[in-house]
Every structure is written in C-alpha cells, then in structure tokens.
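User: New here, please read:
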Amino acid sequence: MILSPGHRLGPYEIVGPLAAGGMGEVYRARDTRLDRRVAIKILPPELASDADRLRRFEHEARAASSLNHPNILTIHDVGTTDSISYIAMELVEGKTLGELIARGPFGIKELLGVALQLADGLAAAHEAGILHRDLKPSNVMVTREGLVKLLDFGLAKPARPRRRGPTDSLAVTEPETPTLPGTILGTVGYMSPEQARGENMDFRSDQFSFGSILYEMATGRRAFSGKTDLDVLAAIVRDEPDPIGKVRPDFPAAVSWTIDRCLSKEPSGRFAATRDLARDLLVLRDHVSDLTTGVVRVRKRRRFAPRIAGAVILVAALAALFLLRGRSERRPAEASIRFSLEPPESTVFNFTSSSPAPPALSPDGKWLAFGAKDSQGSNHLWLRALRDLSVRPLPGTEGATFPFWSADSRFIGFFADGKVRKIDPLGGSPETICDAADGRGGTWSREGVILFAPDRNGPILKVPAAGGTPTPVTRLDAGKPGTVHRWPSFLPDGQHFLFFVRRPGERGPQQEIRLGSLGSEESRPILTSASNALYASPGYLFFIREGSLFSIRFDPARLQTSGTATPVVQQVQFQPYRWYGVFSVSESGLLLYQGGPVVENSELVWYDRSGGRLQAAFAPGTYAGLRLSPDGQRCAMEVRDDQTGRIDIWLGDLTRAVTSRLTSSQGISDSPVWSPDGKRIAFASNRTGVWKIYEVPARESGEPKILLDTPDDKTPTDWSPDGAILAFNSSGPGTNFVWDIRALTLSDHSVRSLIRSAFGDVSGRFSPDGRWLAFSSNETGREEVYVQELAQGSRRWRVSPGGGTQPVWRRDGRELYYLAGGDTLMAVAWEPRSSEVARATVLFKAGIPSSGSDIPLFDVSPDGQRFLVNTTLQHQASPPLTLVVNWRAESKL
C-alpha cells in the first residue's frame, strides 16, 4: 500500500515518500495542528494482519518514546486511522551512515565524531533499559550539521541495564516481551554471535553491532561477509575480521583496540557498560591529534613547570640507575632519589576501595600499572611510562583488580568479571585465561606459569599463561574453616613462591607469609606479616606490620630469612579487610608505595531531604558502616584504628555528641544491627579467624556471646520487627560461593534461606510491618534494589532501574531509600496495600567513602526528614604515590 500526497492519517497530511523497510514505510508529512514537518512510519496492511509484527511495531513506539536524547530520534505521536497503524516522528534531513560509508573509509577525526555521538545515544537507551537489536548503517542518520541520530527501534526490547545512571526521576522497567528461543531478529551482517544463534541478548549485543559499523567506517568494507546470508551468519559466529591495521596501516591502534573489543565473540569480552564505551571514545576523540603518533597524553594540571622538571629529573635518575647497574651489580649508587606521582587528571587512585587495583611496577622498572577511578565512578587500569611520565588508560580493563606483570614485562595480568585476564599494554585486547570468582592476587613466572588466588576462601592455583584448567598448589588446613591463602609471589627461581596465610587460632587469628613450591602442596612459614610480601633483588622481602612497610634479608638460594625486620616507611596504605599493602618493587631497584593513614578520614553528618548540611554528629574519625537505634537517639558505627587497621563497634549518643567503644578485638568487628527494643546489638567479627555472628548489650559492658558459628562468612543485616529473626548474608566456602540472604531463628538457632538465587543477594532489610524484605542483587549484572514479599514463591519488584545498593526503610514503611551511583541518595514511595512502586526520585548527592561493609553508610531519622551520612572530609584526596630510586641507599640496608 502506497499513500499519495494529501492523504490524511489523523492530523497528519502525507507530503511524499521517504523510505521503506522490513518493518514499515516512512513518509514525509505535515502536522496540521502545529504546522510542523514530521516523518510518518506506517505498518503495511499485509503486515498489520500479522499479530507478532503488529505487536513489535507498537512496541517500537513505547520503547522509543521513553527516550529523550539529542542522538535518538524523537517520537511525537502514535495512532491508528482506517486500520493503518502509524508513528509520527521527528523529521531528520541528511544522509544515512550507509550512504556515507559508500563514499569510502572515514577519516579518523570524522569517524570518532560520529562514533561518539552514536555511542552516547546508544548508552542512553541502554541506561533506560532499551535494546535496539537492529543497529546498522541504514538506521543511523547524519545531518548536514554533523548531528547523528539513531533511528528505528522496530526490534527494540526492554533490558536490565548494567550502568549506574541516576537521573531526577527513574521508573521501574516494565516486564519485557519474550522472544522465543531460536528466533533470529535483526539484520544479517550486523548481528552479534548470540543474536545470530537466536540466543538471549543483552546490551552487549548492540555493542557488537556498533563495532561492526565502526569497522566498516574504518575500512570501507563489511566486518563479516559471504555469498549467502547463512555464510555471513557462520562468519559472525566463527571467524574474526581482518585486523584493521592490515587493511589500513595508518589507522590508530588505540581506536582499533576499542573496535576489536566491541567485536569480541563472547559478550563478557565487550564493555561492561555502553557508557564506558562512550567514555573511551571521548578520550580518543579529545586526543585525536596524538593518536597518529601512538601516544595519548593527559593534559597537565596546575604547576605545569615543576612537573616537567620533575619528569626530566626522573628520566635522568632512572638512566643513571640503569648505567650503574650495568657497570657494577655489587655497588649501588650512593644516594636515593624520591618522586611523587599523582593520579591522572580528574581521577583518584583506586587502591583500597571496592574493586581495588593497587599499583604494580614492571620487573624491568620501565612501566607502572595502576587503577584509577574517574568522576563517574568508573574504574580502569592505567599505564604510566616511568621514563617520560606519559600516562594512558588501558582499553578493556573496566573493573579490573589486582594487576600483576609477566616476568618479561610484556603482559599485565588482572582479574575482571570473574576471570583471570591478560593484556599487552602496548596494543591489543584483553584475553581470558581462566575463571577466578573473586581474585586475590597473581604472579607470573618466566616459564609462563601463573599462580593466583581465585577467591577469598580457596587455595592458590596454577594455570599456564596461555590458558587451561587451574590446579591447586597449596592445601587448605583441614578442619580449620576460615583459613585464607592469597597474594602469591614468585621467587627468582620460578619454582618457589611466597603467599599470605591467615588462619584461626586459640588466641586470635594467625597471619604469616609461607613458602610454597610448584612441586608440592606442602609449605612452611617464613615470617609473620599483616600483608602480602614481595621479593626484591639482591635479597630482601618487603611486607607490612602495624601499618608500616618493613624489609628483611632473604637468601633466594637457601630460601631463608636472616637478621631482624627493619622499618622502611612509616604508615603505608593498608587494606585490613583483604590484608594487602599498597607497595611494589622492581628488579631494577625501584620501590613504590602510597603513604598516609590506613584509611581516609570521614565524619558522620546530618542532612535534610534536599541535601542541606545540618551538622556533624561527632568529631571526624575513620568511620565506616553505621546504624541508628530504633528511637533515633543513638548510633552504632564501625570505627577503624589508623595505626593497626583494626575495626570495632562504637556507640554514639546523638543528644550529647559523645562516643564510647562497644567491642574490642584483635581483628575486625563490624555490621552492627539493633534489636527492635534497642537493648542489644548483633555484629560480625573475625576475632577467632572465622566470621561469626555475636550479640552484645547495647548499654552495659559485657562479653559478647556467639549467636551463630558456621564455616561460611556471615554478616548480620537486620533484626525482624518482632525480634524473632536475624537476617544475615552468607557465602558458601570454596571457589564458587554465591552470597544469599538467610534467617537465624533466635529461639532455636535454626537457619533457613530468606532469599536464595544464582545471583549475589545482600543487605536484606525487613519492612517495619515485617511483610517485605528490601535487598540488593546483581541479577541484572549490576547491583539493583528489590523488594520481595516474604511469603514463599511471591514475586519481587525492582525499584532501582538505574542501579542501587544499601536499601533502608523509613520507620512507617511508606518510603524506601537507597544509594545510586555510590553516592546519590534516592527515595521511592511504597504503598504496602497495593505493593505499587512509585518513580524513584533523587534526594541529594553526598560524598560517601568506599567501604568493605555490606551495611549502609547512611541511615534515616524515624520521621524520614533527616539523614545521617558517612561523609568523606572535603580536604581528603588520593595520597600521591612515592617512587624511590635506589631504595637500599635510603633505608641504609
């Protein structure tokens, strides 16, 4: 059916045809009410009789109309006239991307300009929970002014987004319309492998299509081709496209890496969030003039001249060190030189917070890999060249933790998305080596063997650097649950290694460095330590005790220490939850560390609902989690000791602004939970080496009594309103633990599951009437807040479509609060009778420090009008790294 000029569809008058596609015909039209030009898309009658096509057509309108972004086509109206279904859309004048590609490959500047706009629009759609599923050049329009518009959401569907993207108002995503397994929707040539196979998809499928488009823009030819559609589908699933550098040698490698990552066959190899993809393209676009030279330079901040001078001095010092080492290994230079290294512009170091990536010097002393977090909270690995101080992010390393170098300094290993991965820092995409649920350190020998701790509970494993099945090289102590092995580090012979062990003991936990061997699972103790230990040539071990960096002589041939440990640096950053220090050494005589207090200082501050600061509750300190008493008059809080890293529960009287210690232990006591009558506090502690749940009176002194003692990690999260049940998080031991929410019945100490799934479910909080449980889960691939009725088999509601953690109920149960993006306080009205979920609204943004605790870093007054928030002191920033050239001279060792 072809509409003639003058034909009317409701208030729209057809002017002429524009285009036609499998999902409908498009006409130029005039809106007679507003006298504006529009585009009208209709579904032909022969397709309108197809219920599935009609359903998808109507879904396009619902999906696209929810989006409001300059790079996404605007939907004005939807209607039906004379059995013709139509959508009235913004009229865009220009050319499709397919028409522009037909002219030949794009210049790098033009390509990045289009790619960034397209990625920005696509990220906005994904953050709104919408997949496109038919991304291709003909669905992208470029105006004469260079504005990019993403068209045609005819195959779009709701999805569970992965990125935090809080806005002023967030709505819960509607249940998605299912696609039958094996059904292939999309356009051949731009499908993802999972789409070609008819499998379930998420936003990463659109990333693959996006990468196919960029490949075609860069080379002028399709990434995947064949004589038939089946040939093309087979190529998408099986084959890799020719490297862009082979087709176009002048093309910048940094941009090729980004495209290659989008084209990863496995979704896990693509970007963790499309917003991260857009950020990478923004960095590349802003440094387009440097890309042709292979260097991405970060703009210098203030004090430009002193930094340049420092770089020159550093280069000279390193050169002198290398010359001295070449002339005589026996006589080091007489003096040491120290330098400060600050994080890249607009970032902070990410060494001791969530997803930590502490710095790692390459063995040859030429490079430094480290983690940094940008203003949006995105974590990346960065690479700094120590000879000229140039620094750049490593594409494909979002969320990476605990980097470690290969012995030849050619590769960086790291942990991300439950995998051990490696990357060539000078070019290439990350490669997966094996699984590692929650990595705790790795090391890489000259023989190509990688040792790593796969999680917080398992033994040390070994795996070939080329990939394979890991096998254990250490044995956990039988009958001693709570023992941890982590932070392996090879010795020079490539056969022996050091690793950290923490085990329960009668007088408290024991912490030591042990010596292991690839030929046996047996090991022996070397020294006591609170952290990881590293070997430094020509014969020393570095480690942490009482918050300071120590060294001790070590004979790598006899595998023995000698003499006494000597302090090298007072107060080095240390993570007491994971038992590692922020320091690194190289074979070339470099020492790197981050000084300063153990944790960043903060204060507990009262805010009103608009974010207005009212007053600080207590003096500044090193606070972590907190919980208000039922009457709102007192506060239980975690307080860290800067010198020892120990954590205890303290009580604060909010009316008098005084505090007192409630617990005292040699380890960590955290996660306080008030009983409904305010007389008791339950908490978790590893004082004996195993995380147990204890109870202590909230006013009187007394020895804590054990409420629950089982082999798994446990953290109490809430007490039921009737006082009968204590909700707690639990993780099963082993390498494949999954956090779930359980209930301890206090009358008989029986345990049952409250929320159990294949996902990480944490932070369960009872509603005041005891009917509902709010909690956070990574079911969608990122943390979201849910509410579920406690009756068995009842459904759950997702209340944070933009991402969220740490739910807290108002005392009357009519409102729920949570954090979005890590530091934005959100509110959701809750109607218990109808269980309706209102739109989430932003209350205010607060500077909340990172914490290893699962309990909230904020709480709400009984009337819901004030919020007590753990707030980072404004003057706090990332302490700089200190690089010491010829550390032996400075420490007089």
Summary: The longest helix spans residues 304-327. Residues 742 and 753 are 4 Å apart (CA to CA). The two ends are 89 Å apart (CA to CA).
